[in-house]
Amino acid sequence: MGRKRGFFAELQHQSAVAQRDRQRAQAAAVRDQIRAQREAERAYAAAQRAHLAAMRADEKAAAEAAREAKRLHVEAQESKVAAMNANLELSLSEIDNILEATLKVDDYVELERLRKVAEHPPFESQHQRPIPPPAPIEAPPPPVFQEPVAPKGLSALVGKKKHAESVAAARLAFSHQYHQWQTYSASIPMRQLEQLTAHKSAEDERIRRLAADRARYDQECGRRQREVDAANAELDTLIRNYEASTPEAVSEYIGIVFGNSVYPEDFSWSVDYEFDPDVQELRVSLEFPPPGGIPTARQYKYVKATDEITEAVQSQKEQRDRYKSVIENMVLRTLHEVWESDRSGKVESISLAGGVQHIDPATGQDVFTPLIAVAVDRRKFSSIDLTRVTPAETLKYLKAVVSKNPHALVRVDTSAGVRGH
To answer: Per-residue pLDDT for 340 more than 60?
Structure first.
């Protein structure tokens, strides 16, 4: 039993699950559980350290270390039990408040709010920045001839020839230096051209790679936009068809509502439904968790004498009463969610049958055992204030057929149909 959620129903379901998890994380019981769990881990680590210390110590110190290790072990076990009890308390609280949880929220779904907007990350590329141009090659200043200083005084009389030779050598060296400068200066325009050509080539390659990165980015943006456009087109179709009350659109809307219906974690349930437009009736088949799917522990306790964690089990009456309450609350929650969400009045009546999928102990075959059946119209249900009712009495008022012992999977007869009762 059960059906695969549609696209919009799955989106809403994931959003609702995330919201439930956020709320759960803020609950005091969760904080207690986390605190107890951390304390258990801390105590366990301390116990391990003490045990290792005892193994390494001398006899007297070992006895002391052993006592400390034992004390810390007890502390770790007690912390572990505290965490288990906090988790159990939270789970049972969520199960016992299945109906109350949905009364705190508005189950109406504004379809227009399901419209999506494409979200694109900013464009980034390692090729975005232009390559800085190289520093221009410039000619050095031309060399300047500096004639050797002529000798003076008596030196001028005897060193004239030597000075002339120095001047000649200096002019030759200058000529060579000047020729080098001319040659280098003449090569600068070509070197500048090569420099500019290499820079332009590198910049052209950068621009090409940047364009390739942009093209990939634009393709990814286009793909995201097409997906969003397709989803919004589907939404437009759903809104039009829902306003026209087509059975498929009404069913899809109900699926979105049920997708928002998030039960406690690890709580096994499913729902199937069909809308009959001729009589404006929604036929619902609701699958409950099996009796074994509800926690049976009442409390955990650490027994120091035996170093064991024991479980105090709920009495059979507690287990029967809690399971019966789960079924009653799930049925009323389902009826409430449909009609609170159906502001446009598409559904005038609901026929609901609920039961458990399990293995028949006699045949070993998978069977579905019906445990409750109810049929009710909008007018009658709208007169009920679920914040003030006793669920069992409400189902009596609605003339529901309920199993005499749901916990024992005592079936009800639905052979005549839900309205046959």
So the answer is: yes
